[in-house]
Design a protein that fits this description.
The protein is mostly helical. Helix content is about 40%, strand content about 0%.
Amino acid sequence: HNVGLLPYSPLAAGTLSGKYRLDKIPDGARLKQFPGFMERYLDSLNEKAVNKYCDLAAKHDMTPAQLALSWCYHNEKVASTIIGATTMEQLDENIKAYDIRLSDEIHEEISQIYKEFTDPTKARN
């Protein structure tokens, strides 16, 4: 149908930036600003998935945000990407991610993580 996707939160409320990996939520972070709204990113398989994506990014000398945003920017099914940078440093990192092209190897590694954690924010019973 030639309908492009528009990722609403390509960094999963900041979790894919890696800043919440140590169970310490920085003051001013979105996860503190909206109590209850972002809990799905804390109490689920999300943490394990994020850790794997963060490790993958580090393995290939990029930040987790660069990995996630580069995937979005260069995915032929994605029409545009909404970024939600709250600092100039984040904005700079988000923009520079456009110049990063992920190799076939990285795409395959992303696919493997995705297969393990298809929808990590959903509760598992």
